[in-house]
What does this fold into?
Amino acid sequence: MSHRYIKIGITAFVLVGAFVGLMWSTLREGTEYYKNLDEVMVNQEQWHGKQLQLHGYIVPGSIYRKRDSLEYKFKVQSNPARSSEGARDQIVEASYTGIVPDTFKDEAEVVLKGKLTPTGFHTDPNGVTAKCPSKYEVKSAGAGL
Amino acid sequence: MASLGTFLLLASFVTCSYAAVVSVAGARRRSRRLIESGIGAFYLICALMTAASAVIINAFITGDFSIKYVVHYSDSVQPLFYKITSYWGGLDGSIMFWVFLLSVFGSIAVYVNRERHRELIPYVVATISTVQMFFLYLMVVHKNPFQQFLGAAPADGEGLNPLLQNFYMAIHPPSLYTGFVGMTIPFAFGIAALATGHLDDSWLRAVRRWTMFAWLFLSFGLTLGMIWAYEELGWGGYWAWDPVENAGLLPWFTATAFLHSVMVQERRSMLRVWNVTLVIMTFFLTIFGTFMTRSGVVQSVHAFGDDPILAKLFTAFMVFILTVSFGLVIWRLPLLKARNELDSWVSREAAFMVNNWILLFSAMFVLFATMFPTLSEAVTGNRLTVAGAFFNKWMVPIGFILLFLTGVGPLLAWRKSSVRNLRDSFLFPVGLAITTAAVLAALGMRVWVSGLCFALSAMVIGTITQEFYRGGMIRRRNTGTDLLTAIVGLVGRNKRRYGGYIVHLGIVLIFLGFGGNGFKRDEQVLLKPGQEAKIGTYTIRNDGVKVSDDGQKQATTAYLSVFQDGKQIGNLYPAKWAFRNHENEPTTEVAIRRTFAEDLYIVLAFQPSDLATQTATLQMTVNPLVNWIWLGFGIMALGTGIALLPERAFSFAIAKLPVEMPASTTALTLLLAALLFGATPLSAQKGMGGPADQNIQSSYYARNEFEKKMQHEIVCTCGACGHATIAECRKDPCMTSHEMRAELATYIDQGKNRDEIIQAFITKYGSEEMLGAPVDKGFSRLAWLFPYFVGATSAVAIGFAAVKWSRKPEEATEAAPLDAALEERIDDELRDLD
It folds into this structure.
């Protein structure tokens, strides 16, 4: 009997070990930090080059699009435009090439996927997700995958 | 009207508590009247909830804007259809819709089973009522859909979110809820079985159909969600591993596992704890999924908002469910012991077990990955998110293993597959898979993930075809009809098995669609009028962008011409619609050109500055094979429908075997059946030429009273018939009962009596599972006690001997005169022993 339990024990150990190992390695590649803009701006250098999901709000009037192209430049701030803390806002410049969601406009709450560099935030292709400016309980359109 | 609605909800709550309490009291006191009263109250809840639903629908139709919920989710210009579907458009209403569905399903389940499963019913009523109480409580104290404005009511509503004004989205929630709520019924029966201790297979039989039904609607709901995402959200895909989607997928995994493992319990009396656990898990995951998406625990672009009170209530309820359910399971563990052990890893039950582990693992993995951001924030303080790529990295291989098992499982015999059985049944499917892989490689397929997917799909199709063909051939011989009628009859005779195969076929088509994803192409372009762009084999030309207004919405439409091989094959009109009151949230109207090979999928991204230049910014996607997913679901639904059909539906094709059949034909048929039907367990296991074969022709009909009596005493082990006796099991083709009858005939010919025959069956099948009635219980127990009896007797005897021999010699001499000769003999014998 004890022999059988040793076998089961070893099998279980190997399986669990393999599972944890796989999980750990895939998680390391697959995870991204989800950060609010102000959290990142406290210590910018620390986040340079890391894969980030950056949460913030678009600065009103900051969206520029290069003529006849899909290249965008815009600014993101850490608090909603009309909040009282507006004055102490952290602001970062962001760039993006591609199609933006319909809800991507001034004051919109956005989550950007990409990397922070000294020259600003480089957004990945399809990396812009915008929430509706008005509060709705229902699903809002956003770029998926 | 609103106060009437609130009153109805309160009345339902009170009635629920009454039904729950009275049912349990009735069951414990064995009072028929109390139980009946509980059932009556249970039906009453259904009536009350129907009335409450009528009130809210009426409020929507008449536009009663004094009710907050109506204002939030509808307006006066909305089409009638969407006014009605606004009922479940928001959280409050969807909770109410949930209770309404549960009360309807619960009443049907109780009504249908009230005689057959009399002992379970009170606890079923109590369980469902408790679940209803929770949701009603939620509404009454926190999310009342009938809540009114304290001040002046607005003149018009805000309107249903335009994204939800889509046919698929209108029917997606009811379908998903039907699936979710349907899972409560098996759970209630499981809890009732645990509470009463009636843990044989009868509760499983009561819930099998319910689970299938709920599973079908859950699948339907998930598919509709995918179609909606594909057509309405306009990002070119259908599944993004979003928490809201995952919430529906979690119980789907465990329900699928349950539908498979239930067969192992019916057939082999194994996995009893496992099955109860799966039922509990499935129900728990439906609640957990709702909690996850509705309480704001998981952050998602699609999440439904933040609600800490709701989160607390749900957490309390979930802890309650887990404590009570698993408490009952632990209490009843002694009754849930398996009656058999796994004989071999090369057997169908082993395949089912692996399938179950993998499905459960999938559920756990998706749960973990969905909760990962929340967990990581709680543990490390840093919110780490996982992207779709992470899910795919794990779920793609898991999907392949499941697909592989779908191909392998049906080919394996129960208990243990012989080498011969393996060779016979695997040759065709594996050959087909290898051929497919080779052909694809030769054609220059470079995406190996898709190639593997297609090869495995070919294997499953091979398996299913082979099963149908072999079964159909046997039946054709048996009934003398053509192959097609024979196959229809076959399906009718064993609807669950062949319906299941049809479901598998649907799954294969869905996997084909997933495999096509590997060839997806994606382009983002900006086209001025007259400019062209290429994607795949298509060329797209921008003919201009126009704006129009139809009163309800303003539409911006791009006029595109599509060319293939230099010829114009059609026009596409992707658009943006801005609805009244929702000007800031334009909806995307995707233009799709569908073919079975691929979809050309074009989305117009619109910026106001584009209008002046007539520029079209387009997201173009070519999605190969995507329509096979929807088709696959249709076939899955067909298969499930067949499995759910009542017995009578196939009467035209399932004519009984002709009674007076020439003996030689029967023998040949049965022999052929045994040869061809590799998947039928015992034929493969025992090999051919056993003693059974000589008697197989006479096996159907008992030759004398004794044989008849014995046929009614022994239960068929085929599992498909739900433990009918071998006299009754005429499932076609049930080789098991044929063989068991033949065996019985052999034993009778050998002149064995009843006990010897039963003993022979027990020796052969290793347990008493085939006995209609348990062997004479008292005798059985005595037999079981025998070793202990012998042991105890020996102990007493040794004690006596020890006392006797240790007596003083004078006492012994006193006794000696009584029988000197005996004394002498014993002395001799004792000496010999030394």
The longest helix of chain B spans residues 348-380. Residues 130 and 187 of chain B are 12 Å apart (CA to CA).
